[in-house]
Design brief:
529 residues; six-stranded mixed sheet; 16 helices; 33% helix
Length: 529
């Protein structure tokens, strides 16, 4: 591959669709003399999703240009990043990543024999590497390490030392993998500049750094493994792909933060050199595009309907996913998937099937809570209790929910009216002074001489029904209804607090929606109930 191409043609292939290249002159010089050695690394954390086709299509470009490509499964990094991958699951996740990424590459026609696959812990635990970690830590400042990981390492109020080590280890990987260049998303830029600043102080050569743009997710923000609504899993069935694409943000004429168009640009065009818009003959029939700019231009001019764009992407995407789904139908890979990403058991049948299994064995984790954004559409005093409000709140369902709350002493009816709030929606409904309350309004409170209470605030732009989750616990499915005897919410509620930055948290992990953090205006350090 790449033998018949000139250095300029190789450069064009290597750099097309990249957002930035640091060290382009060095890249040109290498291509005049020999093939480029490049690596792409991925931390083995959450399940890879369809946005991973973006780096895969670039790897295809690298191979066409004759590059020697190494893929690093960064298992140690997955653990260092706030323990996104528990130690006992590291090996299983590496095996899952290796199988799913090889399946992706096969689905786009990349020959695996041209690639080198490496596991991080195969060299990162060696004596030489460990000594270099100590050498690097003696020159890198805490400020620079924290800054380098700001867009990659999970940010928490009390960061762990492991997160500060992460960027330095990624920098050292360049040297120990013996490559000329590292390839990654533009969110890695600060890690790349840290490597360029500090590796020469250890006597190592500065590498070339090549960066892809970040592809918007289906909701318009970054596509994330941890945000279920923003991404399509590689093993999602075709019906689920249709459902997620149907919900995807794709405003007529709007080409900004459009995850559907970005997928066409960064995956489908590089792979196929064309894209077909499927249309009913009465609307002009199918149209073949051989230039992405024309697709974007026609969409901006509203000559392509969002529904036609989604349907066409759905067809093309399912063609890519079909061989991956088929490969993972084998019993071995099904078992690997469930072992690497275990789902908390919901023992709905009690102990009948297994007398040793008890309710205590059910994991009490935040994803079991159905927390949503709601909008107060009416509020009045409870007819039988002056100290209670009776509210009608839109939570994204056909009918608003009736909620009884004790906020009368803390906030006026006018302040509550039309306000966005946060609700726990899967508690068992209970009657309060004769009226059934169908959800719990979540508030921050501080006890003292005079108790203070404030409703939690969703991020700006939120809509009724938006899911609220704890960062790191997005993928689980909420219980249909929390059983009062199990006291699931009560056990979790002990660790629900307001941080010093006024952010709602559970065990120092932020409560979030797809648009950002759940906050509280003034009650720093308060409890949430």
């Amino acid at each position: 591959m790449g033998e018949q191409l000139s250095p300029d043609e190789k450069l064009q292939l290597i750099t097309r669709n990249l957002q930035e290249v640091l060290g382009e002159e060095k890249l040109k010089e290498i291509l005049k003399e020999r093939e480029l050695k490049v690596y792409w690394g991925t931390a083995t954390t959450g399940k890879p999703h369809v946005a991973y086709f973006v780096p895969m299509s670039k790897i295809a470009d690298f191979l066409k240009a004759g590059c020697e490509v190494t893929i690093l499964f960064a298992d140690l990094h997955a653990y260092l990043d706030n323990m996104k991958a528990p130690w006992e699951l590291l090996e299983l996740r590496v095996k899952y990543y290796e199988q799913i990424i090889k399946a992706m590459l096969e689905s786009i026609g990349v020959p695996l024999d041209k690639l080198k696959f490496v596991k991080g812990t195969d060299f990162q635990l060696s004596r030489e590497y460990t000594l270099d970690v100590y050498r690097l830590s003696s020159v890198v400042t805490e400020h620079d390490a924290k800054k380098a990981g700001a867009e990659v390492v999970k940010q928490v109020e009390h960061p762990l030392l492991s997160g500060l080590l992460y960027p330095g280890l990624q920098a050292l990987d360049e040297e120990f993998l013996k490559v000329d260049a590292q390839f990654g998303g533009v969110d890695q830029r600060k890690i790349f500049t840290l490597a360029e600043k500090y590796l020469p102080s250890l006597g190592y050569t500065k590498c070339i750094h090549m960066m892809n743009p970040m592809v918007p997710g289906l909701t318009g923000g970054k596509m994330s493994s941890s945000e279920e609504e923003s991404k399509i899993d590689l093993l999602d069935k075709s019906q689920e792909v249709k459902k997620k694409l149907k919900k995807a943000f794709c405003e007529p004429g709007n080409v900004e933060n459009n995850g559907i168009l970005s997928f066409v640009k960064h995956v489908l065009f590089p792979l196929h050199s064309e894209f077909v818009i499927k249309r009913d003959p009465k609307w002009g029939g199918d149209k073949v595009y051989t230039d992405y700019e024309e697709v974007e231009k026609d969409f901006a001019a509203e000559q392509i309907h969002p529904g036609d764009l989604k349907a066409s992407v759905e067809l093309a995407l399912n063609k890519l996913l079909d061989p991956i789904r088929k490969k993972f139908e084998t019993p071995e890979l099904k078992k690997l998937t469930t072992s690497a990403y275990p789902v908390p058991s919901k023992n709905k049948g009690g102990a009948k099937g297994n007398p040793k299994q008890t309710a205590d064995e059910e994991e009490v984790i935040p994803s079991r809570l159905d927390i949503r954004v709601g909008k107060v559409i009416s509020v009045e005093k409870h007819p039988d209790a002056e100290s209670l409000y009776l509210e009608k709140i839109d939570v994204g369902e056909e009918q608003p929910r009736t909620v009884v709350s004790g906020l009368v002493a803390y906030i006026s009816q006018e302040q509550l009216q039309d306000r966005l709030v946060v609700l726990l929606c899967n508690l068992k409904p209970q009657k309060m002074r004769g009226i059934e309350s169908q959800a719990m309004l979540l508030c921050a409170s501080i006890e003292g001489e005079s108790r203070k209470v404030e409703p939690l605030d969703p991020p700006e732009g939120s809509a009724p029904g938006d899911r609220v989750f704890v960062d790191g616990y997005e993928s689980g499915k909420p219980d249909d209804e929390l059983k009062p005897k199990k006291k699931v919410f009560e056990k979790l509620q002990v660790d629900l607090k307001i941080s010093g930055e006024n952010v709602a948290q559970w065990k120092e992990q932020n409560l979030m929606t797809k648009l950002g953090q759940i906050t509280c205006k003034t009650l720093k350090g308060g409890n949430i109930s």
